[in-house]
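WARN no homologs supplied; continuing
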Amino acid sequence: MTRLLAVSDEVVESLWSERVRRLQPDLIVGCGDLPFDYLAYLVSTLNVPAVFVPGNHDPDVSAVTHTRAGLPIRSGLPATPVGPSGYSNADRRIVDAAGIRLAGLGGSVRYRPGPNQYTQRQLARRAGTVRRRAAWQRWRDGRGVDVLLTHSPPAGLGDEDDPPHRGFTALHPLVARLQPALLLHGHIHPHGIPRPDRTMGNTRVCNVVGYRILELPDRSV
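OK structure emitted
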């Protein structure tokens, strides 16, 4: 059983204190639009692995990659780190952490100029990259994706009608192919209205704005 602390969009003051230690997660996952110093505090205090995808209000983190030694580079040259300290960027990537495999797709539907925003067609291409990388990893070691991290929800599953908060249609075929146990997203603020979990086949879709504690059973059992 892997215990996840999932955070997104809204700073929770009780987590920005020593009280966060009581949650005892095995892994922190961030679904975007949170201050990087807040995320860095969580990982430094809890001292567990951490993975994130960017939201539409986050800076562009795509141009900086890391060498095998963990050094940030941009166009092959040393670069200033971008993103929250202590986190692996899962955007359009496959990441293994705390014994589970995560795939990620950050950003929202494009509704104004700025980074981390995509048309439906652009997101479909990005989803295709994730699908191919997940297939290669599965061919290599036989393991599938346990958790899909996104900033925006799938279209028609917890999204809204206004243009900035519409979900992505390409997440439906991606989930059907990867069949993760969990899809965790942010972007849709509760505003006092409960946001129930939804399902896509065997995948549980969870809005984690603010924070959620989730337990992921060992899928080999």
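The chain is about 20% helix and 25% strand.
OK
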